[in-house]
Predict the 3D structure of the following.
Amino acid sequence: MPYKDPEKARAYRRKWKKSAEQRKKAADRSRQRYAEDPDFRERNKAAAEKYQAANPLTPEEVKAHNAKYERSRRSSGLQKKYGITLEDYEQMLEEQNGCCAICGVDNPQCAGHVNLSVDHCHETGKVRGLLCGPCNSTLGRFEPDLEVLKKVLEYLVNTTT
């Protein structure tokens, strides 16, 4: 913070907050106009194409740029959605030997996913473990009512020959 004086610091925060709110409102107005006004949308697209033509990136540069920010994007997404850091995720993955906590598959890509999904209780938000896509979606179908899951298990045991 640029000010040690509490009053100046408060004034600085108020000014910053107001300018952030103004930027958000302006961005919202621009998004709405882009959605509703075809002429505005075409002018924006033309300007973006002109910029891209004047400042071309090679595929390698694009790949390097995306790789540079992928880790921080993943980390902030985990933090927002589940309240865990990327380091927490990696520790859980290591504790599970890189495998799904239910079926033990060690290749989430076989189910069309890049990473194992974070399994969490929808009522409490508590993270339970990492699951492959099929196990996560199956568990999600039964989570609200564990009695149904018990009946499914009982059904499978009784009907398997």
